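Late entry, written up from scratch paper. The run itself happened at the end of the previous shift, but nothing got recorded in the book at the time, so transcribing now.
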Amino acid sequence: MNRKDLLREANKAAMTCLESLRAISYVNRDSQFSTVLLEQEKLYSDYAAKIRRIADQEGVELEDEGFLPKMMLWGMTKMKTLGNKSPSKLSEMLTQGIDMGIISIDKINNEMEEGTDRSLADELKNYYNATKEAVRSYL
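Output as recorded:
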């Protein structure tokens, strides 16, 4: 994996995080948990903006995942929360998604070419861990 691939994957991961947080926020009814979700959304929004700036500077074209994956994510969130919209359930869903993201970042790190700057992948992993920590008390 080279720098262009890393930028594309990091953008995809950041956008997935943002959509997940928005979908969870949509079903959430707890004001205190809403504050936590908004703080996390800001982190990933800033990270996504940083990725877009770097990609523009380096001439890397980033792709939008499109409508279908977003709708599937929103639909899955609504389905999984039909009977339980508690912050505990939402935190559990978010933590499971983050764990999958961490696995993806670890795979990306392992596939990177020697000498490739890994700081963007490491930064995303740090955000994942920060989000897990932020929602842990709600589990």
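The chain has one domain: 3-133.
(Scratch paper discarded after transcription.)
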